[in-house]
């Protein structure tokens, strides 16, 4: 019997989209790993301070600090535990990416005392959270984690997922965001929540990713005209004959007759049709052969 409720699988981490906008992050270190952390936290709009002596900065970190200027504060100094309390004061998150695990552990203890969440790149058991292998397509974010067990496998799994993503997934989500905002304006009442959600689910399911990605504001208005009557207009109804020439239909043609971009096997449709023909041909040959034997 199928489980009624999802099974609890202990031993994982909590995968969440932590909102860091404007939060103060201290990053200690300036090598390649620190440069990777920088991308992660700046993608989340954090206020970032980098602490690392100038002589220790790698090429990417130098570029980020002095050319791209995405680092909000740069402190040209080494972290020392003697004045550690003063150094960590006021931060919302601390990240270390240094080649000194004793110092990493000390920074970790300091952060705990100050109740600041901390990630220590070289001492996984001490971390409050791990980083993962990431995909970013506009508003879409995918993270793969192996709980620290196999970072390389996290990266290769991420690459597999990346290849499976529809090309237009980012713009499609942007457009859905706009449509949702327009719907909230048209139907702002809290009590309409369940109807709003049902309607959004049905619209998202009725339009393909390519169709959503190419939706115009005028088409959104047309879809919204169906809201009061609880009607869901799909792309063919909104676009009429133009739909047949639209990129989404070209995409559907590819799905029917092309090859799968992930593993390279032919589309299930053409494979199915081809398989049926091949099956029929084989059966005919078999029948012909056996009937000849019978004769
Ligand atoms: C715990 C964690 C740190 C944290 O977040 O706290 C951690 C820890 C460590 N990694 C080490 C090594 C390698 N790390 C990578 C790659 C990545 N590592 C990443 C994350 C994490 N690595 C966190 C857990 C992630 C998870 O859940 O799986 C990724 C996913 C994201 C990112 O770094 O931003 C990024 C891929 C990004 C991408 O390409 O998409 C490779 C492969 C490569 O470079 O190609 C190798 C060499 C192969 C190997 O060693 O396996 C070592 C040294 C071990 C030693 O000294 O022997 C430690 C420390 C230790 O394990 O003790
Ligand atoms: N993805 C991950 O999480 C991975 C983690 N690691 C671990 O992460 C750590 C950092 O790796 P890399 O960037 O390759 O090392 P790296 O040796 O290139 O860089 C270390 C950096 O720390 C700085 N540093 C050292 N002591 C400091 C101090 N007291 N205050 C401020 N800055 C200080 C150095 O100047 C240098 O910029 C290593 O310990 C490594 O084992 C390694 C590979 C992957």
TrEMBL record:
Name the UniProt record assigns to this protein: precorrin-2 dehydrogenase
Organism (species): Acaromyces ingoldii
Biological process annotations from GO: siroheme biosynthetic process
EC number(s) on file: 1.3.1.76
One family name in Pfam for this protein: NAD_binding_7
Residue stretches making up the Siroheme biosynthesis protein Met8 C-terminal domain: 166-232
Ranges where the Siroheme synthase central domain occurs: 137-163
Annotated transmembrane regions: 269-289
Origin superkingdom: Eukaryota
Pathway participation: Porphyrin-containing compound metabolism; siroheme biosynthesis; sirohydrochlorin from precorrin-2: step 1/1
Keywords: Membrane, NAD, Oxidoreductase, Porphyrin biosynthesis, Transmembrane, Transmembrane helix
């Amino acid at each position: 019997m199928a489980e009624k409720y999802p099974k609890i699988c202990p031993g994982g981490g909590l995968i969440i989209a932590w909102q860091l906008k404007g939060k103060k992050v201290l990053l200690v270190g300036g090598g390649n790993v620190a440069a990777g952390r920088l991308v992660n936290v700046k993608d989340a709009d954090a206020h970032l301070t980098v602490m690392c002596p100038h002589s220790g900065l790698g090429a990417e970190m130098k570029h980020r600090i002095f050319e791209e200027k995405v680092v909000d504060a740069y402190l040209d100094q080494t972290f020392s535990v003697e004045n550690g309390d003063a150094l960590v004061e006021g931060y919302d998150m601390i990240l270390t990416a240094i080649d000194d695990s004793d110092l990493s552990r000390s920074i970790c203890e300091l952060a705990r005392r100050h109740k600041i969440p901390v990630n220590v790149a070289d001492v996984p058991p001490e971390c409050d959270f791990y980083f993962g292998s990431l995909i970013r397509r506009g508003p879409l974010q995918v993270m793969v984690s192996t709980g620290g067990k196999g970072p390389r496998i996290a990266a290769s799994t991420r690459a597999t997922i990346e290849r499976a993503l529809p090309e237009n997934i980012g713009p499609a989500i942007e457009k859905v965001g706009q449509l949702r905002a327009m719907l909230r304006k048209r139907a702002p009442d809290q009590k309409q929540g369940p109807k709003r959600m049902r309607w959004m689910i049905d619209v998202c399911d009725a339009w393909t990713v390519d169709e959503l990605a190419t939706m115009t504001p005028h088409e959104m208005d047309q879809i919204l005209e169906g809201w009061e009557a609880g009607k869901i207009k799909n792309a063919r109804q909104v676009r009429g004959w133009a739909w047949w020439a639209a990129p989404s239909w070209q995409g559907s043609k590819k799905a029917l007759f092309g090859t799968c971009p992930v593993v390279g096997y032919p589309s299930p449709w053409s494979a199915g049709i081809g398989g049926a023909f091949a099956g029929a041909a084989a059966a005919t040959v078999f029948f012909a052969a056996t009937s000849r034997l019978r004769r």
